[in-house]
Amino acid sequence: MAWLLLAFAIAAEVIATTALKLSDGLAHLGWSAVVAIGYLISFILLARALKMQLEVGTAYAVWSGAGTAAIALIGAAFLGETLTPLKIGGILLIIGGVIVLNLAGAH
User: Fold this and answer.
1) Where is 20: in which H helix or E strand?
2) How far apart are CA 89 and CA 59, in angstroms?
3) Tally of domains in the chain
4) Measured on CA atoms in the order 3, 9, 11, 17, is the torsion positive or negative?
5) d(CA 76, CA 61)
6) What is the distance, to the nearest Å, from the Cα of residue 106 to the centroid of all Cα atoms in its chain?
7) Containing domain of residue 18, as a range?
8) Using an 8 Å Cβ cutoff, are 45 and 88 in contact?
9) Residues 16-58 pLDDT 10s
């Protein structure tokens, strides 16, 4: 259940970060509301996942790493941002780091 909460926390964070780009520097009230609500939901779900069983280092690495990778892909697919081989390599390193942290935390 903690991992499911973490997955929803990541989704909320990705929605909020995408809305941050669309908010035009928080000038657009509707997108700004999505930013605030999305981050609030994300932090609440992350806190509940941590309370259940997840180690903070692992949970934060998964939350931030998955969010970073997803935002980079969303930026390239929908926001006209470039996805260079170097950026792809960086995303793969983030994913690899998250995997290593999870393996290191396994008992």
Assistant:
1) helix 2-22
2) 22
3) 1
4) negative
5) 22
6) 22
7) 2-105
8) no
9) 999 999 999 999 999 999 999 999 999 999 999 999 988 898 8
